[in-house]
Design brief:
mainly alpha, Four Helix Bundle (Hemerythrin (Met), subunit A), 8 helices, globular
């Protein structure tokens, strides 16, 4: 059985917080090939997360991936919640002109009773089905669609759908890295 990654020697706090590095959003439009790469990352995430959860096992998923961080169960449920929110952001941006998206508090959401009481297989299945539908949408967007925007009130920032694609492809890899730390 592996040790808690938060106590592992040689792993610094920056790596524990950002196991795949920090996100870098594009400032120029992406090429179609670059977009396909990010779409593939979103398509691949559910299976990769399921595998990482199995590798970590039940006991380690109850441990935080770093001091003060969420445990693996919370991370997996958070990914389902966050990606559902982002899927809705895409729909809002595609059906409204420059919408302001609803804010949500992920730290409060991971403390809700369903996170502790629901098996992770429910959120893994939710991610699988959500990503299957989201990927179909992403493959059908036009060049103009990718430049549609939404306003994020928490960050006081406008995002294009291309930037949101990059953000959430990274977000999936970021939290997958956290679960993979628990599997060490």
């Amino acid at each position: 059985m592996s040790q808690n990654p938060a106590a592992a020697p040689g792993i610094d706090d920056e790596h524990l917080r950002y196991p795949v590095g920090r996100v870098v959003l594009p400032q120029q439009p992406l090429t179609p090939a670059e977009r396909l790469g990010y779409i593939q990352q979103i398509a691949d995430l559910p299976a990769q997360l399921r595998e990482a959860g199995k590798a970590a096992g039940g006991v380690r998923l109850e441990q935080p991936y770093r001091p003060g961080g969420w445990n693996g169960r919370q991370v997996i449920h958070h990914l389902a919640d966050a990606h559902l929110n982002n899927y809705l952001r895409f729909h809002l941006a595609l059906t409204e002109e420059h919408p302001s998206i609803p804010a949500w508090n992920p730290n409060a959401w991971v403390e809700l009773p369903d996170v502790a009481a629901t098996p992770i297989t429910v959120s893994l299945g939710m991610l699988e089905h959500l990503h299957a539908r989201w990927v179909v949408l992403l493959y059908h967007l036009t060049e103009a669609d990718w430049q549609r925007t939404f306003y994020h009130p928490v960050f006081d920032r406008v995002y294009t759908l291309e930037q949101a694609l990059v953000q959430y492809a990274w977000h999936g890899r970021h939290h997958l890295g956290h679960v993979q730390l628990l599997a060490r």
